[in-house]
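Before relying on records like the one below, remember that each one covers exactly one chain. Contacts with other chains, cofactors or solvent are not represented anywhere in the record.
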Amino acid sequence: MMAVKRMVLAMGAGAALALALAPMAEAAPRRSAHRPPAAAPLVLDRVVLVMRHGVRPPTKAPAMPADVTPERWPDWPVQPGWLTPHGALAVSRLGTWDGARLRADGLIPARGCPQSATIRIVADSDQRTIATAQSWSAALAPGCGVPIDHKPQDEPDSRFGAIEAGLSPYDSALADAAVRAAAAPDGVGAIAAAHRPLLARLDAILCGAHRTGCGVAGQPTALVPAKANGRPKLSGALDRASTAAQILLLEYAEGKPLAQVGWGRASAADIGRLSAFHALEFRLLARPRYVASANFAGLAPIVREGLTGETRVTMISGHDTNVANLGGLLDVHWQVPGLAADDPSPGGALVLERLRAADGALFVRVRYRTQSLSQIRSAAALTAASPPSASVLPIAGCEARGIKGLCPLDQFLNRIEGQ
């Protein structure tokens, strides 16, 4: 029975279900004298999730400067930047799903509450990240009151903003060079020009019948050099397009009536296409290795401890920037149903799975676990018939034992620690 259990843990969900339904004689056929023994399965024994918070309103009121749109932005049920009740519900759906998977994998108890040494939850000090961790953990282990490691609300936490906190050596000139290289060969002006049709569509949503004195496309795009202990930034059309596209996405993900999403002028297809601006901002500013390594320096020790220590499950409740930094360090890429490639979704997480071989060798496999945009909007329960996506992501330049997506643990840790 133990061999069958290990086999189930190493298989995909569909194959595992087929094994469970098959008669025992078929599940463990008699080995032919000429058939070589099957390779021992890899056993999952540690999991680290680096997760973006759930749905929130814009972080400012008004959401953008007055020259962007003549329209009044829609109201939200909470303060700017806070997790909404709908966002909390969508996150709780993920907590329930993740809890079931972790129990099936034997990482938390099948019944009762996990011991404090079994699970660690770390959250940034913003209300939305603390509340996301609370919603996720309450659904993962109902009634257990799993403690959450976070600073008092709104007190800066250097772990989630290592560059600004000066946690690691940082040269703003090298950061600028890394961003310019990401924009090569022709620079951000050429990138903006290539996106002119999409910028025009965004302006049509922002401006409506007004065709002058509004929108974002008319502003020249530029790179703003990094200041000491600061990150490079964008200005102009691409910067404002990223912000506007994210606001429209959040309106849709919140479940607002379509008449309130982009003032009734933005479809679900528009939301997906426009999210390319948000992903582009991260490609230029958050994923370049020098910037990603410096900014992830505060979270890298937590990830290391989660993959090498005694704690079986570690969850980090952070921001899209943290997810993009890690994605850049690993050079992994994902696609959220309904969004552009590499755009970190609300509640989406890079899931780092430690796998142990029979000979004791340790490996890491990476997944991106996320609800689709429509699942976030509905906040419906996640089921076997309607699961989140959790695809394995190949780590560029890292493969082990001929298995794509499998990376030796020491090599993986070197990657996230900037070595």
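The beta strands are 43-52, 119-123, 222-224, 233-235, 313-318, 349-356, 362-370, 389-392, 406-408.
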